[in-house]
Amino acid sequence: MIDIILNSTTKDIIMDNLSVGIYFTDEKGKTLYVNKAFEEMSLIKAKELIGKTLEELVKQKYFTASATLLVIKTKKPAAVSYITKTNRKLLARGKPFFDQSGNLKYVVNTVYDLSEVHYMGDIDYDSKQNNNNQIIAFSSQMVNIVDFALRVANVDSTVLITGESGVGKEVIAKFIHDASPRKNYPFVKVNCASIPENLIETELFGYKGGAFTGANPKGKKAFLKQLKKEQYF
């Protein structure tokens, strides 16, 4: 049934008009099909990829990682963010398809564009992020978190991320930002825990000169007022 769909005119109409990229391989990771959306977001033509395995493409530095290779190894769904040779950051969610005997037959990836247009303004914060943060997920819990984060990214709402130190809360926050309509604007991190409680108001909102004993005579510009609304929201 899959082979019939891939060889039909209907496939071209449907697959090439999806808003997400589609990357389709066989059980060995050999590229069988990529849609137009994937070509546009990766800036790589299908003819460069068809017939090549993901193992080859990773070795040739077309991609820094591959969800397909994880799926082949684990026989489970996986999610991986990676950089293409054209310096585009993408997220692939790979899903295995098995034949009636339970053998892996195909791997289908839905691919999302996480690339940023780098802001070249005059605001330079210590919180400037490393764009090479990578997500690799193959446990069902983590894949579910990635799926949920993709849905949340399109909602104009506050998001609270909780978890122990070191579990990757900031990586998920940056991932949500990269997958959202705000991705073309800076991701600004404010570590409130590092600001003394009695100074947090003056740090975030600033103060005028002489406002209190020991204050800078010139005052302090509010951190939040340095952010132009149209650039961030």
From TrEMBL:
Transmembrane segments: none annotated. It comes from the Bacteria. Residues 14-58 form the PAS domain. InterPro entries: P-loop_NTPase (IPR027417), PAS (IPR000014), PAS-like_dom_sf (IPR035965), PAS_fold (IPR013767), Sigma_54_int (IPR002078), Sigma_54_int_dom_ATP-bd_1 (IPR025662). GO terms for molecular function: ATP binding. Residues 135-233 form the Sigma-54 factor interaction domain. GO terms for biological process: regulation of DNA-templated transcription. Keywords: ATP-binding, Nucleotide-binding. PANTHER family: C4-DICARBOXYLATE TRANSPORT TRANSCRIPTIONAL REGULATORY PROTEIN DCTD, TRANSCRIPTIONAL REGULATORY PROTEIN. This is PAS domain S-box-containing protein. The lineage of its organism: Bacteria, Pseudomonadati, Campylobacterota, Desulfurellia, Desulfurellales.
